[in-house]
Amino acid sequence: QVQLAESGGGLVQAGGSLILSCAGSGNGKMLTRLGWHRQAPGKPRELVASITVGDIVDYGDSVKGRFTITRHQDTVYLQMNNLKPEDTAVYYCKADVRHADPWETYDYDVWGQGTQVTVSS
Q1: Quick one: pLDDT band at residue 1, thresholds 50, 70, 90?
Q2: How many Cβ atoms are within 10 Å of 18's Cβ, its own excluded?
Q3: How far apart are CA 101 and CA 36, in angstroms?
């Protein structure tokens, strides 16, 4: 069973920085993509950034140029710079998991529990 352990959330002033990390325990399964999504009160969950096992990255439009996602094996890091009050949200780590055995191959998602990021003005 794949598990994700998130850390690094907290309270920061506008213009400050935070680093989030998410350690995946794949238990032998391939985590084809790791990423971060966020959800603010009253808003839908949205993509922040993701990175594939081949280091192909994708960013949400609102964070481009401010956030950087990196990956080392099954751990993903999100460097967040120049934080704004509108970045306040619960940040969730997500893994795209590939199950493959001699009988079947399929993909599924695993989500972390979330970590709060609060940016004060």
Answers
A1: confident
A2: 21
A3: 28
CA-to-CA distance for 28 and 68, rounded, in angstroms? 27
User: Which residue in this structure is represented by tokens 């001699």?
Assistant: 102
Side-chain-side CA neighbours of 67 within 13 Å: the count stands at: 28
The DSSP letter of residue 82 is: S
Query: Which amino acid does the sequence have at 38?
Result: R
CB atoms within 10 A of CB 51: 21
pLDDT at 26 over 80: no
Confidence check: pLDDT of 7 > 90: yes
Per the document, the length of the chain is: 121
Give dist(CA 67, CA 98) in Å, integer: 27
Q: What is the distance between the alpha carbons of residues 94 and 18, in angstroms, rounded to a whole number? A: 19
Whether pLDDT at 34 is above 80: yes
